[in-house]
Amino acid sequence: MTLTHLDATGRPRMVDVGTKNASTRSAMAEGQIRMSQNAYNAVETMGGPKGDVLRTAELAGTMAAKRTDELIPLCHPIGLDHVQIHATLDPSLPGVRVQATTKVTAKTGIEMEALTAVSIALLTVYDMVKSAGHDLEIGQIRLMEKSGGVSGDWKRSDSSV
């Protein structure tokens, strides 16, 4: 197996997608942040000094997806067709789960935008909750499914986060 972002000498390179046909592509990623019960209660009641944690995280995730190419050096700029972020409380963690779905018609994939959206949404939760304690843990950020492109559709077989 060869890594597409390395040339024959091992130097990093942006993949040339100029000859590829545009196709409809989508990706869905998930992640979570665990926190103390105290912090969870503050998020649930919007008791923090920074406001509605979940809606702010969703907005941050959307903004991040739109700027992925500025954050990841070899990522192509993509004009997103759609981004949807869902941040939800999960008492079993306790904490927050984030899911991001991205869609585009383009010559290259959209997975990095979904993963970036989840990552930044979770970091936003961290920032907004850290005053309730630094015992926060971000984890399980992963691609759950993707569709389109030459490699076709893919879905994670273990869907539990």
Radius of gyration: 17 Å
Low-confidence stretches: none
Q: Per the principal axes of the C-alpha atoms, what is the gross shape?
A: elongated
Order of helices and strands: EHHHEEHEE
- Tally of helical runs: 4
The portion of residues assigned to helices is 25-40%
Secondary-structure class: alpha+beta
Estimate what percentage of residues fall within beta strands.
25-35%
Number of strands: 5
Give your account of this protein's structure.
This protein is of the alpha+beta class and 161 residues long. The chain is 28% helix and 29% strand. A hairpin with a 4-residue loop joins strand 2 and strand 3. It is elongated and about 55 Å long.
Kindly summarize this structure in a few lines.
This protein is 28% helix and 29% strand.
Give short descriptive properties of this protein.
five-stranded antiparallel β-sheet; elongated; 161 residues; alpha+beta; 5 strands
